[in-house]
Amino acid sequence: MKATFLEHSLRVSVVCPLCKGSLEIKRAVRHNDVIQRAILSCVSCKTLFRIYARIPVLLEPGQRADWNHPFVEALFGYTTEPYEKLLEKYGIDRIRRRYSEVIKGEYSPPKVFFKEPVDRSLLAMGGWRIRKCSIERHLERIKRQTEHNEALKEMVYIVKDLSPSRILDMCSGGGFFLAHLLEKYREFRELYSFDIDYKCAKRIEGILMYYGLLNKSLPLVTDARAMPFRQNYFDIITNNCGFGQILGYSRALRETYRALRHSGKLVVREIYGITRWDSSRTRKELGFSVDELVEFYKRYDIYIDKESFIAALEKIGFSIELIKDFKESYLIVCTK
Ligand SMILES: C[S@@+](CC[C@H](N)C(=O)[O-])C[C@H]1O[C@@H](n2cnc3c(N)ncnc32)[C@H](O)[C@@H]1O
Ligand SMILES: [Zn+2]
Question: Residue 206 Cα, ligand 2 centroid: separation in angstroms?
Answer without folding.
Answer: 29
